Amino acid sequence: MRQTPPDVVAHRGASAHRAEHTRGAYELALEQGADALECDVRVSRDGHLVCVHDRRVDRTSSGRGVVSELTVQAMSALDFTHHSVDDPEHGVLTLDELLGMVSDHGRGVRLFVETKHPVRYGGLVEQKLLAMLVRHGMATPADKESSTVVMMSFAPSAVRRFRLAAPKVPTVLLFDRWGRRRGGLLPPWADHAGPDIRLLREDPDFVARAAEFDHDTYCWTVDDPADIALCDRAGVRFVATNAPARTRSHLAEPDLPRFGSVTP
């Protein structure tokens, strides 16, 4: 079991305080001392990787439409900030811009990139991601532990496809139901297990079983103090949270609250 607290991963930035996937959300996450950032990526109509979770932009912007049918220029004209005064840059954030933020940041920060599926472009999103990592000099780290980027997906085929193309970049297989994963063993192309926090509430010993197969655990999305305590006790390595500063504060407490399980 890990003896150190989990790394704090800012889920879509500090999204509890600023609109998700915006420059302002990621800047705040860095200010709050997040160990890593997390983003979702999709391919725009003109072939760019944009940081948008949903298939459509309706929920997160002032516009409407399917991401894969919109150009970056069209999405740049929309307001993704919910009119936040803290973030004057309101248009869509591209992965290229986010990687630039990570590269320019003085403190070593990782970026967890989730490729979304199913999508009309199939494996193009992984191809685009690899090409961008090559351009930023992040595709061939000295070892997986020093890699700036971690790739992850709920789609096993996507994780496998990316591993074959970029064997030195670590991967996370995300899942929200146990299936074959409960024993802790992952396919050879997945480095880390990525369970939903609801699964760990049911079975916190999964983390130890995964560790027996040399798999660390990335758990999402961890905001409640009881869940933070659970992940810390269980030995989770990475906790994805919407509130990095608050989560870090709970992890720093000498007597972390132990409130038991929370009903999903």
Poorly predicted tracts of residues: 257-264
Instruction: Kindly report the name of the CATH homologous superfamily of one domain.
Output: Phosphatidylinositol (PI) phosphodiesterase
Head-to-tail CA distance between termini: 25 Å
Fold-level CATH name of one domain: TIM Barrel
Radius of gyration, whole Å: 18 Å
H/E series: EHEEHHEHEHEEHHEHEH
The main β sheet shows up as:
9 strands, mixed
- Share of β-strand residues: 15-25%
Mean pLDDT: 93
Shape: globular
CATH architecture of one domain: Alpha-Beta Barrel
Q: Given this structure, which CATH class of one domain is correct?
A: Alpha Beta
Q: How many helices in DSSP terms?
A: 9
Strand elements, count: 9
SS-derived structural category:
alpha/beta
Helix content: 25-40%
Which terms would index this structure?
single chain, alpha/beta, TIM Barrel, globular, disordered C terminus, Glycerophosphodiester phosphodiesterase, GP_PDE_dom
Can you tell me about this structure?
It comes from Saccharopolyspora rosea. This is Glycerophosphodiester phosphodiesterase. InterPro entries: GP_PDE_dom, PLC-like_Pdiesterase_TIM-brl. Residues 6-251 form the GP-PDE domain. The protein is of the alpha/beta class and 264 residues long. The protein is 30% helix and 16% strand. Strands 1, 2, 3, 4, 5, 6, 7, 8 and 9 form a 9-stranded mixed sheet that branches. Strand 2 and strand 3 form a beta hairpin. The longest helix has 12 residues, at 124-135. The protein is globular. Residues 257-264 have low confidence and may be disordered.
Brief overview:
The chain is an alpha/beta fold and 264 residues long.
